[in-house]
């Protein structure tokens, strides 16, 4: 099946620094990718839709200046958490619609810890 | 807005027990419905799906039927195995959209 990778799998950073997370579709092209955030023992919340070659679409309540999304190619989307703070600590997951109808393929997630 | 409500966990069962995880949804139109599974240390994987009313999705012994009259998509398995231990997410894709709305997830533990 289609494979989505994320890098890094975990990252620890100091408060005030920026962190970039990569999401790649390894064996298919994705004009659209989705970024989710998962809090401990809670569900996945959609943060934004990443569109190749155009601006991302953010869900209500998500700060677009804090969570910068770039989808520069058909296989790569990046999420940059700018000026990270401890409340940004979370599990970030990306997904991409694979070949076929209405099936999403998920990356393994990136655990961000901000000290 | 669209939402999914899932049975609260955690759920602990013995091997070969019958499993039901309830899922109900709120959505306009005709959403597609999904069950995803997250095994320890792995990403979410699609378990099964149904795209219209009365469709039954099935995979690996799991089944769920799209019931529009009760807005439900309950997950069932007749005889669970230890290897089924994971977190299960019910989700919907709004009609005409690819993004997913997830339930809160149910952690399932199967004891030998």
Question: What is this structure's SSE topology?
Answer:
The complex is a heterodimer of chains A (115) and B (112).
Chain A: E1 4-7, E2 10-13, E3 19-25, E4 32-38, E5 44-51, E6 57-58, E7 67-73, E8 76-81, E9 90-97, E10 104-106, E11 110-114
Parallel strand pairs in A: 2-11
Antiparallel strand pairs in A: 1-3, 3-8, 4-5, 4-9, 5-6, 7-8, 9-10, 9-11
Chain B: E1 3-6, E2 11-14, E3 19-21, E4 23-26, E5 32-38, E6 44-50, E7 56-59, E8 62-65, E9 75-77, E10 86-93, E11 101-102, E12 106-111
Distance between the termini of chain B: 41 Å
Major sheet characteristics of chain B: 6 strands, mixed
Q: Return Rg of chain B in Å.
A: 13 Å
Total helical elements of chain B: 0
Number of helices, counting only DSSP H or I runs of 4 residues or more of chain A: 0
- Multimeric state: heterodimer
Q: What's the helical proportion of residues of chain B?
A: under 10%
Largest interface: A-B, 22 and 20 residues
Describe the structure concisely for a colleague.
The complex is a heterodimer of chains A (115) and B (112). Chain A is an all-beta fold and 115 residues long.
Descriptors:
heterodimer; A: 115 residues; mainly beta; seven-stranded mixed beta sheet; four-stranded antiparallel beta sheet; 11 strands; 53% strand; B: 112 residues; 0% helix
Could you explain how this protein is built, in words?
The complex is a heterodimer of chains A (115) and B (112). By secondary structure, chain A is an all-beta fold. Chain A has strands at residues 4-7, 10-13, 19-25, 32-38, 44-51, 57-58, 67-73, 76-81, 90-97, 104-106, 110-114. The termini of chain A are far apart. The model of chain A has no long low-confidence stretch (mean pLDDT 92). In chain B, 0% of the residues lie in helices and 50% in strands. Chain B has strands at 3-6, 11-14, 19-21, 23-26, 32-38, 44-50, 56-59, 62-65, 75-77, 86-93, 101-102, 106-111. In chain B, strands 2, 5, 6, 10, 11 and 12 form a six-stranded mixed beta sheet that branches. Chain B has a four-stranded antiparallel beta sheet with strand order 3-9-8-7, with no helix packed on it. A two-stranded antiparallel sheet of chain B has the order 1-4. The radius of gyration of chain B is 13 Å and the shape is globular. The model of chain B has no long low-confidence stretch (mean pLDDT 94). At the A-B interface, strand 4, strand 5 and strand 9 of A face strand 6 and strand 11 of B.
